[in-house]
Write a structure and sequence with these properties.
mainly alpha; globular; single chain
């Protein structure tokens, strides 16, 4: 673990969690950090889950402490996210590096579009559905988005939030709590799967986790006018860097 690797990874992971706390989509930056540092795609995906999981633990604990997690909805979200993520990670491990790089080249612009676009997440007061339907929607969404998280990952929290608000009709404040539970479960399942197959650089991941916690703490306490507008240009630069890096590795 040379100083250059740490100088690339740690600041970007800090920035990733800061951005994630303000506007979401930080996983796009943290994955960039590991890939730009030269980690093979499978190891980058696995190591990224270390800092992602630890950062999500902090956020989930804060939501739980504030009473914003409904156990009845969180349980199916966790169970199905665990299952989906484990399957997605297994598929990723059996996918050649070159194919993963090709998928990243096509997936990056799509994921970036959904993460960076302005979203109206407020649910009308009269838009209510039964608890059974909510549970079914949350379970199905958690499974398939969890599968995506295990295979690739960036934007998972955003996709879950969109599904839980638009389809399950949960208020944004409450939906965020369920999203954190499902996202934590998918991160843990993917991490365990990658680790069991030797695709995690634990030393680097744990050091980066310290910066992830710091970034999450600073970001969550940051009160900025038009904070998301400040974050978007930063993310676009980092995403462009990742796109060029992946494309270069694929061609050369």
């Amino acid at each position: 673990m040379d100083p250059i690797t740490l100088l690339i990874v740690c600041p970007l992971v800090f920035l990733a969690m800061l951005v994630d706390a303000i506007a979401g989509g930080g996983g796009l930056i943290s994955l960039t950090a590991y890939l730009v540092a030269g980690l093979p795609p499978h190891v980058a995906l696995g190591t990224n889950k270390v800092s992602s999981a630890i950062g999500t633990v902090v956020a989930t604990a804060r939501f739980a402490k504030s009473g914003l997690i409904k156990i009845k909805l969180a349980i199916p979200a966790v169970i199905f996210a665990l299952a989906g993520s484990a399957i997605g990670a297994k598929v990723a491990l059996h996918t050649p590096d070159g194919v993963i790089q090709m998928i990243m080249v096509f997936a990056l612009p799509v994921v970036a579009f959904f993460v960076l676009r302005k979203r109206a997440l407020d649910v009308p007061a009269d838009a209510t559905i039964s608890t059974k339907k909510q549970i079914a929607i949350i379970a199905i969404s958690s499974f398939f988005i969890g599968m995506y998280d295990g295979f690739y990952g960036p934007g998972t929290g955003t996709f879950m939030l969109l599904a839980f608000t638009a389809a399950a009709k949960l208020p944004v404040r409450e939906a965020n709590g369920e999203v954190k539970c499902a996202n934590l479960a998918s991160n843990v399942a993917a991490l365990v799967t990658f680790a069991a197959n030797g695709a995690v650089w634990w030393g680097l991941g744990l050091v980066a986790s310290v910066f992830a916690i710091a970034g999450s703490y600073v970001g969550s306490g940051l009160v900025m006018k038009n904070g998301a507008k400040v974050v978007r240009p930063i993310m676009l630069v980092v995403l462009a860097l990742l796109f060029v890096k992946v494309l270069y590795d694929l061609v050369f």
